[in-house]
Design brief:
This protein is mainly alpha-helical. It has 5 helices and 4 strands; from the N terminus they run αββαβαβαα. The chain has a single domain, classed as Rossmann fold, CATH 3.40.50. Helices cover 43% and strands 10% of the residues.
Length: 136
């Protein structure tokens, strides 16, 4: 994951590691679902290994919803950052809910994510911190 890819996880981690304010759009009540890369790769491999009669689309992802403000606070806690939350206007095209239905992945692939958000964030934060240190 690149530092400046514009995604919420990378933005929050970089802001927290640099002790900068964490930008929340709207009230931060919009939900997102986060799937760690190893889980996603496992799901893709299972999909590639299915019989040809198994067709998609089959959603891969994590159905556990987290609000944006909960994510920000979790990142701050893991980093042990002094970053504060700063609220900006919510863009009109920002969806309020993102939650994949993985029932077909569970049924046809026997797949579901196993890495929880806290562990995935901790690993990602460790990686980002190491790479940011190298850039100094």
């Amino acid at each position: 994951m690149h530092f400046n890819d514009g995604r919420v996880v990378s933005n929050f981690i970089v802001q927290a590691l640099k002790e900068k304010p964490i930008t929340i759009y709207g009230e931060g009540l919009q939900t997102r679902s986060f799937c760690y890369v190893s889980d996603l790769v496992d799901g893709l491999i299972k999909m590639m290994n299915t019989p040809s009669e198994t067709t998609g689309p089959i959603n891969l992802g994590n159905p556990v919803e987290v609000t944006i403000v909960e994510l920000a606070k979790l990142v701050i806690d893991i980093v042990k950052s002094k970053s504060e939350l700063v609220y900006m206007p919510l863009p009109t095209d920002d969806p309020m809910k993102r939650k994949p239905d993985i029932s077909l992945a569970q049924e046809h692939l026997g797949w579901q994510p196993i890495v929880n958000l806290e562990l995935g964030l901790a690993e990602t934060i460790k990686d980002f911190d190491q790479r940011l240190q190298l850039r100094k």
